[in-house]
């Protein structure tokens, strides 16, 4: 089974999937996969989210996890459903302990230097900067200058236009929600539009990587 950290460093983009139904979440995730986005975060705000996770396990190329985790029991249930990672909007040592006990990768929210270092020292694998749009790539770059060991993932406001700026600033990965899985496309069942956006995002990451 692939090391999640290696998969993240290779692919860089998490599709943050927040839809009204589990069927929509699966369809959106599969469209992202067809477009080349392998990191799939199904938020627990989706009704039947864990069922969607289980259905997506039929795609061995996907790294599937859950987001919006606010209780330790949710991390436990996610592991039972086959999730590989757990994302929380905040730092919670009890959720972290459950996540690690189940052998899952952990991502938790932090913004200030104190918060991100607290996450790092506690064993959080990737610290989520949210909402990223409120801070910008310059903030992330400044954080990493004295703290270059930090693995940071901006989420919220990351789009096709600023994706490479975040990577240039030192983000290990980015989370893309509505800018990738557009609500209008979901409502219309236009999975081709989601797939096309995913292809463009993957191409942007490849172009960024080729710059060396």
Provide structural commentary.
It is a single chain. This protein has 212 residues and is an alpha/beta fold. It has one domain (4-210): TIM Barrel, CATH 3.20.20. 46% of the residues lie in helices and 16% in strands. The protein contains ten helices and eight strands. The model has no long low-confidence stretch (mean pLDDT 96).
In short:
Helix content is 46%, strand content 16%. It is α/β, with parallel strands linked by helices. The longest helix is centred in the last third of the chain and has 20 residues, at 191-210.
Features:
212 residues, alpha/beta, TIM Barrel, 10 helices, 16% strand
Give the percentage of residues in beta strands. Answer: 15-25%
Which overall shape is indicated by the principal axes computed on the Cα atoms? Answer: globular
Mean pLDDT rating: 96
CATH superfamily: Aldolase class I
Q: What is the straight-line distance between the termini? A: 28 Å
Order of helices and strands: HEHEHEHEHEHEHEHEHH
Structural class, from helix and strand content? Answer: alpha/beta
Q: Would you identify the regions where 5 or more consecutive residues have pLDDT less than 50? A: none
Gyration radius, in Å: 16 Å
Percent of residues in helices: 40-55%
Q: Major sheet, described briefly?
A: 4 strands, parallel
CATH architecture: Alpha-Beta Barrel
CATH class: Alpha Beta
Number of helices: 10
Number of domains: 1
Tally of DSSP β-strands: 8
